[in-house]
Amino acid sequence: MSSGNVHSVKREYAEEETTETRHPVVAVSDVCFKYREREVLHDVSFEIPEGALVAIIGPNGGGKTTLLKLLLGLLKPRIGEITVLGQTPEKARRRVGFVPQHIVFDQDFPITVLEAVMLGRAGSNKFGNFTRSDRSAARDALAAVGLPGFGKRLFSELSGGQRQRVLIAQALCTDPDVLLLDEPTANVDTDTEKSLYELFKKLNETKTILIVSHNLRVVIAHATHVMCVNRSVDIHVIGEDEHTRLIPVEGHSSYSVVDDSQPAHIVCDLSIPMSTPHRDEKS
């Protein structure tokens, strides 16, 4: 990739951080996870600060979606510890919004847009029925994603981009502190993708956001951090000054964080061997 295809990003929130008062929104320590005998994530440790917008990149099968499921508490690590908002992922789940990569739905099922959004609040009250408050929250979420007045329309009648916005509204319906987005623009056109990333940028003013994406050029234009995931994890702050750029290494599972003002660059190398000892095996 040529230098004309990369983007410089400024880290605007850095001046506001104080290490004495800020605690990581996500903290992962020495985590390993495997499906049966196949280890997917190995010896993973990182922290994500409040207000970050993290671009999660890496090859297919490298563990990106698995990592999101671990942060949601849908999977449990074989080794290691995870906290989200200072709690276990299970306890923090209601403060975390999630937009999955794929949805399967019956085109003939007559669910309205408002009802689809309110599903994000399912189980939020002990009686099991949606309340006036649920409907109000759903309408506010639809307005936030640019779909005011769409509540009575059928979900099946929407375009792909509109459906994606409804799923984001569903994730926003509980006013979460953290948003996890797994390939949120995978099936939309270029104009819709651009508008969605503008939406994510606005949401990032009040929420910490993690986005899995293969469109490096677009996501890096808005990100404060880049997380490279390929069985291991390497995370970098980007855009600390106007010299910092991120360049993918063609044909390899690594990315270079380049500082044009320095004679050398930092390589985000994801080739940590699986034979590296686990935490409980280290001396």
Detailed description of the structure:
This protein has helices at residues 64-72, 89-92, 113-118, 132-144, 160-172, 190-203, 216-220; strands at residues 26-35, 38-48, 53-57, 79-84, 96-99, 178-182, 208-212, 225-230, 232-237, 244-248, 254-259, 266-269. The chain has seven helices and twelve strands. Helices cover 23% and strands 26% of the residues. A six-stranded mixed β-sheet has the order 5-6-7-3-8-9, sandwiched between helices. It has a single domain (3-101, 177-281), classed as Rossmann fold, CATH 3.40.50.300. Helix 4 crosses helix 5 (160-172). Strand 6, helix 6 (190-203) and strand 7 form a beta-alpha-beta unit. With 283 residues, it is of the alpha/beta class.
**Uncertain segments of ≥5 residues (pLDDT<50)?**
1-21, 248-267, 269-276
In CATH, the topology is named Rossmann fold
Global shape: globular
How many strand units? 12
Mean pLDDT: 78
Largest sheet descriptor? 6 strands, mixed
SSE map:
Layout: E1 26-35, E2 38-48, E3 53-57, H1 64-72, E4 79-84, H2 89-92, E5 96-99, H3 113-118, H4 132-144, H5 160-172, E6 178-182, H6 190-203, E7 208-212, H7 216-220, E8 225-230, E9 232-237, E10 244-248, E11 254-259, E12 266-269
Parallel strand pairs: 3-7, 3-8, 5-6, 6-7
Antiparallel strand pairs: 1-2, 1-4, 8-9, 10-11, 11-12
Main attributes?
283 residues; Rossmann fold; 3-stranded antiparallel beta sheet; 7 helices; globular
Short description:
This protein has 283 residues and is an alpha/beta fold. It has helices at residues 64-72, 89-92, 113-118, 132-144, 160-172, 190-203, 216-220, and strands spanning 26-35, 38-48, 53-57, 79-84, 96-99, 178-182, 208-212, 225-230, 232-237, 244-248, 254-259, 266-269. It has a six-stranded mixed β-sheet with strand order 5-6-7-3-8-9, with helices on both faces. Strands 2-1-4 form a three-stranded antiparallel β-sheet, with helices on one face. Strands 10-11-12 form a three-stranded antiparallel β-sheet, with no helix packed on it.
